Batch of 4 targets.
Target 1
Amino acid sequence: MSENFAYPVGLRLSGRRVVVLGAGQVAQRRLPALIAAGADILLISPSATASVEAMAEAGEVRWERRRYQEGDFEGAWYVLITTDDPEANAAASAEAEARRIWCVRSDDAAAASAWTPATGRSEGVTIAVLTGQDPRRSAAVRDAVVEGLRDGTLAAPRHRSRGPRVALVGGGPGDPDLITVRGRRLLAEADVVVADRLGPRDLLDELPPHVEVIDAAKIPYGRFMAQEAINNALIEHARAGKSVVRLKGGDPFVFGRGMEEAEALAEAGIPCTVVPGISSSISVPGAAGIPVTHRGVAHEFTVVSGHVAPDDPSSLVDWAALARLRGTLVLLMAVEKIGAIAAALVAHGRAADTPVAVVQEGTTPVQRRVDATLATVGEKVAAEGVRPPAVVVIGEVVALSSRDHR
Ligand SMILES: C[S@@+](CC[C@H](N)C(=O)[O-])C[C@H]1O[C@@H](n2cnc3c(N)ncnc32)[C@H](O)[C@@H]1O
């Protein structure tokens, strides 16, 4: 076989001595994987980069501040030569060869007895790529494989059954690009997806035909509450051995009833993974050009549900306290009650001319923004026919970007 062909192998280095010569950029890049593998690392170098020094200080490597000496490889299983001293490298390489220790050389790949592959990890899979003399191509292939596994575009189904399980996945505010990489991968692996009306519905169109998509709003619930019926559907499909994703808008734990589902699954003994999502409370204002905080303008933002009117006895919100805050208020589920909420804030002392923006269907192609003040927002929302889903932003941050929206 050619000189460029290497036999791939996975070294199990836990507790085994690895000697690294040199503590510059190359060593800095290689050390984390050796540390992660649990190797007993002896680092020999008169000086080190700040990052390598930190590893030594943290006790992750034993650092001897000196140059290489004959005999340093005694007891080693593997050595890495990364110094820029050609004579020391040649002598060290000769010692490794004489002792039959696999040896990587950063200065001269052709003289080395081992090569470091470009490596990556995704969900328990290690990818290692060797191309002989083209490390950039190795890195590019590694990146493509890791990326494909992460986002699910490289289909690699698991064949060992992991038992019933459900993933509660935050799908982000609506734009299908705003789901996390992990969420997208779990969706690509799902057999059953239980989806809400809110959230990135476009993602559902990408699913292969065998995936059963269940509209959570249409699950028949007879004598159960709707939420209980959804919980039961998740449990039943998981028990039937299906890989189940509960796809929710925004983040599952921000007014998403995610915890109720997690608790129901725990009670049923079904493991559940929660994948955070980008919440509309921050991203929808952002998509409309409104930062929820801004230096010198707002040092806090408060996210509140507006689904219950301020004078409703079931309300858990202290509107008087909120009215006293100077920062940004972000209201979700507040379109219907916005007139009463704005009036309560003004009654409790927030200035009537405080700028307000209402952003409907943020991050989607039909996003729109309506600007008002606390005094006018109730009327304006009605006059302009604003419909849910919409996020209401109240505070001076709105004025930072409102010129084009009045
Ligand atoms: C039941 S809550 C769920 C919130 C979600 N878990 C999150 O983190 O974004 C639904 C409310 O979120 C807001 N919302 C969600 N997606 C939105 C979007 N794309 N544009 C505007 N508001 C949105 C609306 O206020 C809507 O009434």
Target 2
Amino acid sequence: MSTVSYWLKEPHDGLPSSRFDGRPEAAVIGGGVTGCSCALTLAGHGVKVRLYEQRTVAGGASGRNGGFALRGAAAPYDEARRDLGDERARLLMELTERSLDRIEELAGDAFRRVGSLRLAADDDERDALRREHDALREHGFAVEWLDDLDPPLDRMYRGAILHPRDGALHPARWVRRLAAQAARAGADIREGERMTVEAADADVVVVAGDGYLPSLLPEVPVHPWRGQVLATEPLRERLYDRPHYARLGYDYWQQLPDGRLVIGGNRDASLETEQTDVEETTELVQGRLDALVERLVGYRPAVTDRWAGIWGATPDLVPVVGEIRDGVWVAGGYSGHGNALGLACGELVARAVLDQRPPELDLFAPARFTAV
Ligand SMILES: Cc1cc2nc3c(=O)[nH]c(=O)nc-3n(C[C@H](O)[C@H](O)[C@H](O)COP(=O)(O)OP(=O)(O)OC[C@H]3O[C@@H](n4cnc5c(N)ncnc54)[C@H](O)[C@@H]3O)c2cc1C
């Protein structure tokens, strides 16, 4: 049975209407952060754009995620430097830092720029975080090393990196706001309308599907993963003032301003079954999340919501943005880090459609998967 996230239950005003009749110049498939960002950029440049979302805006991963707004891509910065080279790793990091600035500009109270804390669960992870810390420092990016953690983290973890410029999102509120801005700029946003690449009648089609890409554009090497999350009742005490994550991101949580804990991950409890596009929770993973809540809080608060979402991963964990077939473009494959990257890549794909050549596009070229 499909699930609804805590975030998506927030009442909202709906979108301003900007429907137009007739054929659009550009069709965008997918009403998450990527599609809305792309539609906003295209409409802002006077393009007649129509966005199709089969459910509601933010109904996919964009309204179901953990709400971590992190710089960088899925790989740690030291590994990105090794795999992409210094110059390209720096370009990617700077792109996402600018994206966080842009979220801060556009999101209002859906974004709190409180930093994020990446914790080390054991000595190996501590060494890995130390390497990432040093690699960031060497390139002049703000980062702090913490040896002393507050209880109960001091008993559970062995140091942490503070990323001071990251933040916490209410992701559905944020993406609904982004969609409203796209509509106000002139984008025709059609909720409840399913579309295919073949049926979209427009000069240009942009597929903004992330975890849904396999069904929309099977030639793009993006694979679906399921993420599971829960939200508790408001806790009596304020324990966590920023998003926290550990064990390579397999554990992540944030405490919301009203005190509730949103906690997700633990896909490593069953990697084989979590590699799926079925948007359902499982007892195994949810049971692990319950146990983590107890360790983090000291008791078992009531759980008010449990949900799942689907995100898309590429083989090298770097997104794919570019033209796939004549007039058919793609942006997605954020490999679990789509909040800042989705905003950035939606804008990048729009700028590419507009025939601009932002240098960051080369980082995400689809051709890297076919090049010999
Ligand atoms: C549980 C979970 C936790 C996560 N946590 C984080 C996090 O804390 N930080 C972070 O940075 N990233 C996180 N991510 C990843 C991030 O949420 C995604 O990468 C990002 O939201 C992708 O945005 P998108 O717009 O590309 O795709 P989506 O938000 O998935 O939007 C794609 C949309 O396309 C629609 N669609 C599909 N097919 C069709 C069709 N045929 N016609 C019309 N519409 C269609 C879908 O309904 C969907 O709404 C998480 C993901 C999940 C699932």
Target 3
Amino acid sequence: MTYFSNHQLIKKELLDKGYREYRGKEMNVYFNGEICIHAAECIRGNSAVFNPRQKPWIKVDSASAAEVKNIIDRCPSGALQYESE
Ligand code: SF4
């Protein structure tokens, strides 16, 4: 039997649902393009972090973890999620 920590469980659940992982130093961000409704709330929030013209399009460490969490909390579709240790 495999045991997962809470952190691993969240990650596994999101990846199973089709989210992609974007790793940062203090937190990881998850995005599911099939759920995104392109409201651009994230891009308006901080285009250094969320910018479709850059690769990867999410640069988690380009703002503080608190700011990134704040922006993700405003995502209307649930396409963006995060977890931190
Ligand atoms: S805020 Fe959420 S729904 Fe809007 S564009 Fe960003 S990821 Fe998509």
Target 4
Amino acid sequence: MYECVECGYKTDCLFRKLSTEVIKLSHCENCKQPVDKYIEYDNILTGIDATLHKTQAYRHLIHNSNIKSTMKLWLVYLLCDVYVAWQSLKKMSCDDADEPYSEGVFSMLFLLAVVDWLWYVVVLFLLITLFTDVSTKDHYLRTLVLSSFGKLLSLPALIWTTMHENIYFILIQIFILTSNITALKGPPF
Ligand SMILES: [Zn+2]
């Protein structure tokens, strides 16, 4: 089943093919708007709308797109977290900066990143269940992964940010949290 990006109404059809190159967007039975206008959008525009916290863009990504590799994306996020933690360790260390860290340190950082993610997933789930009217709990993990793309911003922060690095990382965390909450917003009925 697909979902109308405007109102969240369930539907089984996003568009009709009129010819090999022409499609006609289906309209929602509930709100009469096109079920998913992002079908005709470029991926970059969809990404910009997601960055701007538009719920419709997230509904498209979560319910109507054919992104299947959320597990791979999650692994990329974990590796980003590990790399950030590893760089922080390197800066704090008094040792020679070029000295490579052992596999044991990498494994420990990876394990910590997994525990950190699980902790975040559980706490956020409890918070939205107890204190908000966010109603989209279906596809919870998929929603969290797809809306946590802000984690990738950690890499340019490490490369280009020399001052105010901590503030930048805090802003990234806030951006990820607000993206997650926007994506988890359910239909308004
Ligand atoms: Zn609708």
